Amino acid sequence: MAMIDFKITDDEGLDCYVRIWNAAGEFYHWSTQTFKAWNINDQPYLMMDELAVVGVGKSQYIASVQADDLNSSPETMYYSWAVCDNGTPDQFDNPISFVYEIPITEGREGAWAKPGDSMGLADSVQTSIASRVWTATGRIISGFASTAISQLTNKIGPAIGYSPVDKDGNINLVCGDDYAAVDGRAIVLTHKVSNPDIDITGATVTLYYSKPTSEEVGTLTGVVHVPTGRVAVKFEPSKVQTAAISPDYYGFVVVVRKDGRDLTTFEGKLTMTKYRLAA
User: Fold this and answer.
1) Which of 28, 79, 90, 124 is packed most tightly, with the most Cβ within 10 A?
2) Total domain count, the chain
3) What 3-state DSSP class applies to 219?
C-alpha cells in the first residue's frame, strides 16, 4: 500500500505538524478520515517526528500517511498540504513551509496505479499530473518524497523541469540526483544586467563551494552558457558528483578564467539535502 512521506528541513526543536486541505477549504481529519470544517476533536492535523540534525541548528521532520486514505473520488483530485509549527495546532496557524500539491487518483494498489500502469487516464491527463507535480512555482520537490510518486513516474517520467536555482541565485540540490539540461534541471546562473563589454567566449568555468567553518573546498566544472550581454554559465553535475557532497549548507563562488585572467562572476549559497524520491 502506497505511503506518502511529508518531509521538511527547518530549525531544530519545533512542534511541526502537517495539515491537508481540499479545493473547498475543508481540512482532512485523521480520526474520521474525512474532509470537513476544522474540528480539533477529530485530529485535523498530523504531528511530525523530528529526525536527525542536518547542519547547524537544523533538523529533518517527517510524517507519513497512506495514499488511499485520501481517496474521495474516482477522478484525479488535488490536495494541498503545508507544515506549521505549533504544539497546539490551530486552523489559523501560518505555514512555515511552501504549500505543496498532491495528485491522488483512485485505482489499484490503493490510490496509485502499479508501476507502468496508465491508471486509465489519457496521455494528456497524465502529462497534466506530471506538470503539476514537478512544476517549480515555489514548490521545492525535494521536500516531497513518496514511494507512490516513484510508482507514478514509472509511467509519466522522472522528476524533471524545475530549476535548482532560486530567484536570489542560490542553489538547492538533492544528494544523489542528476542535474542534466535534457531534464530541465541544469544549474544555470545568469547575470541580472547586461554588460556589452563582457565576452567570456571560450572561457573555463569552475564553481567552488565550502562550509563557513571549514577550509576544505569542493569544485564543479561548468561551461559558458551565454557568452555576452547577460552572461550565463551552466553546470550539469551527475548523481555521482552530488552524492559526494555531504548534506549541509555551503557558500559558493563561480570563477571564469579567460586569457589567464580569473573573474569571480557569481556567488551565493548552496544547500545540499539528502531527501530524494524513493527508488
Assistant:
1) 28
2) 2
3) strand
- What pairs with residue 258 in β-bridges? 261
Q: Please give the Cα distance from 260 to 161 (Å, whole number).
A: 36
Specify whether 254 is located in the same domain as 176: yes
The one-character DSSP state at 246 is: P
> For the whole prediction, is pTM greater than 0.85?
no
Q: Which DSSP letter does residue 165 get?
A: B
- Cα distances (angstroms) measured from residue 277 to each of 18, 56, 144, 147: 19, 24, 8, 7
Lowest mean pLDDT among 31-35, 76-80, 114-118: 114-118
Is 164 domain-assigned? Answer: no
pLDDT of amino acid 40: 92
- Distance CA(71)–CA(8), nearest Å, equals 24
For position 178, which CATH number holds?
2.60.40.10
- In a domain? residue 163: no
Task: Give domain status of residue 71, yes or no.
Answer: yes
pLDDT digits (tens, 9 = 90+) for 36-72: 899 999 999 999 998 877 667 788 888 887 766 665 4
Q: Which amino acid is at 66?
A: Q
Q: Is residue 165 part of a domain?
A: no
Give the Å distances, CA to CA, from 186 to 69, 71, 221, 233, 236: 36, 36, 13, 10, 5
